[in-house]
Every structure is written in structure tokens, then in C-alpha cells.
Amino acid sequence: MSNIVDDIKREFEKSENSLVKIILINTAVFLVLLLVKIIFTLSQSSNIYSWIIDMLELPASPQEFIRKPWTLITYFFTHEDIFHILFNMLFFYWFGKLIDEYLGAKRVVALYFLGGIAGGLIYMLIYNVLPFFQTQVESSTMLGASAAAFSVAVGASTLLPNYTFNLIFLGPIRIKFIALFYIILSLAQTVGPNAGGNLAHLGGALVGYIFIKLLQNGTDLGKPVYAIMNGWTGLFRRRPSMQVTYREKQVYRSTSVYSSSSTSSTIEMPDQHEIDTILDKISKSGYESLTKEEKQKLFKASQQK
């Protein structure tokens, strides 16, 4: 058990490991809720567990949401069903690896959060606007990372539409067709028993597409998320103790200066020689042979008009 805890600590200490951190947080929340459910069910206090879930899931009712606005974030870190979290985290991991390799870890976080928030807002909007759903507003709630995962998946498919995944029984399939299949499936189920969740999927998918298209044109929608991430990291970063040295009645204080470039991989605009070298490597060995830095340089070059 101690080895597992140590492994998790090491993963959280890595600066460019956002993909795994998000999966670990979702898994930890799921396991804690599962343990809490078992304990309170056996002690015949299941109403306490229901109250905890109520504090984490997103309500469709605006009046309920005003009482607990944090649920716009907590809902996409909360799962009750093991197959629900398994599918969402696998989906998120497969496509998130591509975003991580080509655009960096911080954009995985931005797509996840913006997709989850947009999915939640669209879910509440549609339930309060469309007559078909209005009768269900007071009793409808949503939880799960599906909208956030869809945002990452569609973002990856927009960035690299012809990238292929080798699926069991089906062989190599371009990821744009995988994303399109799940979008159509969600659209077909918007009047089914899980209508709210499928509406959120579509909201997340829309954000993923817009995020990448704007990024390719030089506009990064993730900047507010990065600012929050940097502020959050700064709260827990250890500051070095101040050293005071006396020499000839003068005081010298040494401190460390933290810059945003120390925590994120800043890729400079490559010159034409670098671009040609990367393109030659692609023609000989394919996209998969590129290093993470080469992929990010290639994307940076594609933004230059």
C-alpha cells in the first residue's frame, strides 16, 4: 500500500503530468464515494450518502444551482458507476495523450475544464428553455466527466483528424470518424433516459472544436485556466528561506524568481530549416516518430500566417 501511495505522490510532483493527475483525482473521488456508500448503507444511514452526492452533482434547476454553484466543477469529477468512470477515463486518456504531445499538458487541463463547464451550462440552459425538458427540471441532476472527455476527444480530432487508432476487431480507424460516431450517438440519445448527459456531451464537443480552431488562428481560450493554474501552483510552491549576508556593512538578500516559463514548456517559433527537418522526418518515419517538442514546434509553425 505504501508503494502505491508513493507512486501517486510522485505523479503529482511532476509538473507536466496533468493528464494522469486528472485521472487520479477522478479515481480517488470514485473510490472515496464507493467506500462512503458501503459504510453508510451498512449502517442504515444511506440518506447521508445521498446528501453527499447531492452536494456534488449538477442540478438542472437554477434555484438549486444558486445554492451550490461549486457543482458546475465538482460534477465532472464525480462518478457512481464503475463502467461510467472506466469509459470516461479511457476516452479521456486516449485522446488526451495526443493533446498533451502536440500542445502541452496545460491545454489538456483547459479543454477538460472548459468542456465540462460548457457542458454543464448547456445542460441547465436546455432543461430550462425547451418545453420537452421543463417538466423534469426540479428532479434532474447530472454527474460524470463525459462532457469534459468529449471536449478533449473532439479537440484532438480537430487538431489531428487523420491520426489513426488501432481498435480491436476493427483495425486502424481515423480519430475523426471515432469522434463523429460518438457525437451522432449522443445526438440520437438526447430524448432518451440520459438526455441531460448526452446534451452535455454535445456542449463539450462544441468547445473542443472551437478551442482548437481558435488556437490555430492564434487565439488561446485557455488563458484564464492557465492563470488559475499558475496561482494555485504558487500557493503550494515552497519558497526558499531568505539568506542574509553581511559584508562591509552592506546587506545582500538572495531570493529565487519564479517565472511562468519555469513551469511550462515554452516553444519558440521554429525557423524554416527546423520545419524542413521535421517535415523530412515525417515523410520518412511518420508523425509518430516525432518527439513531443517537434510536434509542438510543428503546431507553432502552423499558426504562423
TrEMBL record:
GO MF terms, alphabetically ordered? serine-type endopeptidase activity
Annotated membrane topology is: Multi-pass membrane protein
Tell me the keywords, alphabetical order: Hydrolase, Membrane, Protease, Transmembrane, Transmembrane helix
Where does it mainly reside?
Answer: membrane
Residues in Peptidase S54 rhomboid domain copies = 68-214
Q: Which GO terms describe its cellular component?
A: membrane
**Pfam families this protein is in?**
DUF6576, Rhomboid
GO biological process: any one?
Answer: proteolysis
Q: Where are the transmembrane segments?
A: 19-40, 72-96, 108-130, 142-161, 173-192
Q: Which domain of life is it from?
A: Bacteria
Q: Where in the cell is it found?
A: Membrane
Q: Does the keyword Repeat apply?
A: no
Domain (DUF6576): residue spans on this chain: 271-303
Supply the InterPro entries for this chain.
Answer: DUF6576, Peptidase_S54_rhomboid_dom, Rhomboid-like_sf, Rhomboid_protease_S54
PANTHER family from the xrefs? PRESENILIN-ASSOCIATED RHOMBOID-LIKE PROTEIN, MITOCHONDRIAL (PTHR43731:SF14), RHOMBOID PROTEASE (PTHR43731)
Q: Which family does it belong to?
A: Belongs to the peptidase S54 family.
Its name, as the record gives it, is Rhomboid family intramembrane serine protease
Task: Tell me the organism's taxonomic lineage.
Answer: Bacteria, Pseudomonadati, Bacteroidota, Cytophagia, Cytophagales
